[in-house]
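Pinned message: reference record for Membrane-anchored protein
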Amino acid sequence: MRNKVPEATLGFWAIKILATTVGETGADYLAVHVGLGTAFTGGMMLALLIAALAVQLRMRKYVPWIYWLTVVLVSVVGTQITDALTDKLGVSLYFSTIVFALALAVVFALWYRSERTLSIHTIYTTRRELFYWAAVLFTFALGTAAGDLATEALGLGFMIGVVAFGALIALVSAIYCVGGNPVLTFWLAYILTRPLGASFGDLLSQSRTYGGLGLGTINTSLLFLTAIVVMVVFATAAEQRAVRATTSSEH
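Predicted structure (tokens):
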């Protein structure tokens, strides 16, 4: 197989943040406004995720539409896991943040012990890809818990949450640019984009009473889903051009 994960370009990070925002607002819309409830929404999204992941695992290379569909569904499921623990079971956000951080550390430890690398540039075996998606799921769950902890439990609010997590991502990017470890900085940024996207989604969708801009979850979800589709179409076209260029050079 060829590498199954796209390069971490600006486009990659833009779609990742958009997918994260959809995970936050989409889960809220289905569970609360449609009235499906957290448990039913979580079960339905988990079933869709398993189906999408099965298709993704069968691919022999990076295919934009199924890769990003899987990311969006992982975002929703990761959000649902944290929301179910917090809202239904009464688990403290402090506790869930610690638990998900430890779970992610265990995934990384097992991944590195098995493959001797955590790089996204070498996801060309099924085992590595399974480790990758397990890590992605826990980054979403951890990011949701940490984001809710900062914006709600600690009372920072959505606007300050966007600024704070944006500043942390900028710091990680600066460390990478001056020679920081590319694998470590990638995964730190990947974790931080979750609370950034969630804070941004809440800022746009929540009512002004709660410190948001009042766009609503359905409008915010549709806006960002449309943006994701447009960017994935461009990514697909770019991938096809690259394949054609490679094929012509070989001949």
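Pinned by admin. Summary line: The mean pLDDT is 87.
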